[in-house]
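User: quick one, fold this
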Amino acid sequence: MTHRIVIVGGGAGGLELATRLGKTLGKRGAATVTLVDANLTHIWKPLLHEVAAGSLNSYEDELNYVAQAKWNHFQFQLGRMTGLDRETKRIQLAATYDEQGTELVPARTLSYDTLVIAVGSTTNDFGTRGAADHCLFLDTRKQAERFHQQLLNRYLRAHASEADVTEEINVAIVGAGATGVELAAELHNAAHELAAYGLGHIKPENLRITVIEAGPRVLPALPERIGGPVHKTLEKLGVTVLTNAAVSEVTADSLVTNTGQVIPATLKVWAAGIRAPAFLKDLAGLETNRINQLQVRQTLQTTLDDNIFAFGDCAACPQKGTDRNVPPRAQAAHQQASLLVKSIKLRLEGSESLPEYRYQDYGSLISLSKFSAVGNLMGNLTGSVMLEGWLARMFYVSLYRMHQMALYGTFRTLMLMLGSRIGRGTEPRMKLH
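Assistant:
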């Protein structure tokens, strides 16, 4: 029987793994490769803050899983994983329904010989009172589009008003990590773009943006030499940055910090912390940590089952030489996907010894919309090189192009870049619907 590889999760890592295995093992019939995801399309998660601000039309940058599967010799199954039977090597998928509640795809099971779980992470509100009820999150395209629609609706409502009154919108962003600071900058840019399109009842300076961080500085996971310039740039743009301010409660129209400070907020975004999806906790007895991540060894195999791998944000992988786990970053998922291509091929050849994953930090890049970018690149030859301005922005854009090349190949990526360039002259700079 042909070896059955099932990959659950079509994020950047899972989709890249399915594509590469399909091009090799799937194309020559050495294995059947099946990708499972609850959605029909993929969009690169680091772009969701641009979708939320309206500077990116997600429908133009989405990838269709069915088409990608056909082009790259793997299969796609629509569904959300809900359970696992390790003895029979089968996963359970929940039924899928349309917007009217009609069942599209029934609940079913899929058999595997090698299972790879790459379901990513969701935002962790740490059980903060009112956060789940009153905050928006940016874990999926739908959530990002919901924020954009709410923001745009307020501009359209103000524009339709006959009263000559300048309105104000208060946006509060909880968390000064990459998502939080990049969203703040994109929203500042959106305020100017919307005014330029004639929606001037809300002036750019009246879109008041506040970023709230529980820690002592912005971008706490990155070096201070990156966080410092980003903090200064945000303040220069008029963004209020509050550090050492943990949010203890969220209400319908404000946030309350642990010191009692009340921050008025029309729109509230929670962008602090991550956790793996809840269904992973105690999944078929597999070992997990306090944020539901599957515990894996250096080979990315789960600690209790050699036939099940996990990688990306949903996996707790020890970082060799330290007492920490590999950080939940896109570059780690990309590196792990590359390792698993080799590991799974070795498994099919009967090898019992698999390579171990060693995290390589190639640096960090933060984009502050069109205003600035900052970051550092790390390499064996250059050491750590600090980048700012236009050059940092170009390197930031190149990260997405590299992701596209891994999925589409060089020629099609160049065609996408050309089409994007041509379309700039015929499309608005903002998504206005």
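User: anything notable?
Assistant: The first strand starts at residue 3 and ends at 8.
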